[in-house]
Amino acid sequence: MTRIKSVINQIKDFAKEDFPVRKVSHYLKNVKINQEELKKYIFYKKKRYTRNLIHREEDFELMIICWAPNISAPVHGHEGEKCWAKVLDGQLQICNYTQISENPLEIKLLKEIPCEPGYLDGPADIHSVENLSKNFAMSLHVYAKPYDACDIYNLEQQTVKRSRLGYYSINGIVC
User: Cβ neighbours of residue 27 under 8 Å, at least 6 residues apart?
Assistant: First the structure.
């Protein structure tokens, strides 16, 4: 089992190479993180998902997202950054989209992906993540060049709204 510090150090090395997608994807797909170390970052809430920061610096952030049953993140953009999500526990569904036009807003669903533990997604520009099961789920996320706000796509109203991002916990401490 790999320790969190080793994962962070490896990601720092990837940052020096501007996050080569194939190398980062291969590493994240195969890394098995010490589950005991992850416990301090795991916070489940009944009616929402929680973003739990493990490490952040100028080049990247590493976090655990905990998903309550039947909860989803809305369709959102990743500002052109490289990002990866690995399912650690439970079952998620990731839907990837592409934007056809801005005015009127039109996005097209590219693929719905059922995700079991071990599944790695990324990088993706526009997507949604859903926990469609009755059980809690957990995923590990790496965001190259982190940011504090993203675009949320409201498909029903055909609007895009800028939304600030926050964390439920930072380094194992609830904010």
Answer: 10, 14
Q: Does residue 175 fall inside a structural domain?
A: no
pTM for this predicted structure: 0.93
Separation of alpha carbons 41 and 107, rounded Å: 34
Contact 77, 108 (CB under 8 A): no
Tallying the residues shown for the chain, one arrives at: 175
- Tell me: the pLDDT tens digits for 13-53? 999 999 999 999 999 999 999 889 999 999 999 999 999 99
Q: Output DSSP code: residue 48.
A: B
Measured CA distances, 72 to 16, 63, 79 (Å): 33, 17, 20
Could you tell me how many helices (H) and strands (E) the chain has, helices first? 3, 13
Question: 30 is in which domain, residue-wise?
Answer: 4-168
List the CATH number of the domain containing 49.
Answer: 2.60.120.10
- CA-CA distance, 172 to 138, in Å (whole number)? 15
Domain count, the chain: 1
